[in-house]
Amino acid sequence: MKICYFGIYDPEYARNQVLMMGLRENGVEVVECRVDPKKYSGFSKYWQLLHEGFQLKKRRMFDVVIVGFPGQSVYWIACLLWGKKAIIDMFLSLYDTNVLDRRLYTGWGMRGLRDWFYDWYSAHLVSCILLDTNEHITYITKAFGVSVKKFIRVPVSANPEIFRPLPMPPHTNFVVGFTGMFSPLHGAQYIIEAAKILREHADITFTLVGSGQDEKNIFKLIQKYKLESSVNCLPAVPQEQLPRIIAGFDICLGIFGASEKAARVIPNKFYQYAAMQKPIITANTPALQEYFVDNQHYLGCRAADGKDLAEKILKLYSDRGFSGTISKNVYEYYCKNLQPKSIVNELIASLSKHEI
């Protein structure tokens, strides 16, 4: 089987990286056709991608073309070149992310309408859409009026060459760690609320690694509650540097936002934590429960509730045996079911049966 991975995607972004890795590990030949949007800005990236795709089409035949994330804005090019052979890994809705979740702009402004159109036209033109959870699939079918038969669920995963169990470095404090974006989805403000509640426990410290739109607000909350001695904020780092930092966490924190999108997705970092055999606390969501079991693979808490998060942190802090059990369970489940080679099984089966 020969697949062209096509678009303006970032090959180092976890979703694209593990999807291509999983296909290759299953014996699929993957040829990349990519234009870097940082090198070709504006309309030039579309022209360059069309040119490179046309040249590749003249030289090679493919069974299917996967438009990598983010792909909605360039799907029309793949469709023009390969027709129904071109499918898309939508991964997320641009409109849902930028308008409804992050609220970067309004739905009726030019950018909001643009994002809605990108989601709508690509969902309608394409014959097959890859998404990570059934909750996410249900949202896209209802929001853009497309058949559920178009979708194949392909979970998120983690690169096992980067994320794997590492020895915990020597440390004296009990470290509660967070990696990711300071955005509504991740709900970092509730971590600060939990830190405020737990500051009487001098040996519990927090390390937050990341950046994002709520970054200034997070720093203000740390100053407001005088948490500078217990909360350490680090800038976002390349994916390859994360394991060294995560290795020093006694507990890893997921997402805590209360947005509708937060209920539909499982972030990259959950799989990265699982791959490193770490105990995880995160908001209980319908999407998470499609794959994982609360109190068995992770410890769930209420979304947007710093007090409940603090209570769950104390539970793992005081019961190291339970913490070790859930970290072992989630690691074993990840290794058996959610490594890159496993997550593409349904996709490859559909391709092999010519169902796309």
Number of DSSP-assigned strands: 12
Unreliable stretches: none
Which secondary-structure class do the elements indicate? alpha/beta
Q: What is the helix tally?
A: 14
Which strand order spans the largest sheet, edge to edge or round the barrel?
Answer: 2-1-3-4-5-6
Helix content: 40-55%
Mean pLDDT: 96
Estimate the strand proportion: 15-25%
Radius of gyration: 21 Å
The biggest beta sheet reads: 6 strands, parallel
| Shape estimate | globular
* Spatial gap, N to C terminus: 14 Å
Order of helices and strands: EHEHEHEHHEHEEHEHEHEHEEHHHH
Quick overview:
The protein has 356 residues and is α/β, with parallel strands linked by helices.
Please name the defining characteristics of this protein.
356 residues, alpha/beta, 6-stranded parallel β-sheet, 14 helices
What can you see in these coordinates?
By secondary structure, this protein is of the alpha/beta class. It is built from 14 helices and 12 strands. Strand 7 (174-181), helix 7 (188-197) and strand 8 (204-211) form a beta-alpha-beta unit. Helix 2 (44-59) runs parallel beside helix 3 (75-82).
List the helices and strands and how they pair.
Elements (H helix, E strand, L loop, with lengths): L1 E6 L6 H12 L3 E6 L9 H16 L4 E4 L7 H8 L3 E4 L4 H8 L8 H16 L3 E3 L2 H11 L6 E3 L20 E8 L6 H10 L6 E8 L3 H10 L6 E4 L7 H5 L4 E3 L14 H8 L4 E4 L15 E3 L4 H13 L1 H18 L2 H4 L1 H8 L4
Parallel strand pairs: 1-2, 1-3, 3-4, 4-5, 5-6, 7-8, 7-10, 8-9, 10-11, 11-12
Helix pairs in contact: 2-3, 4-5, 7-11
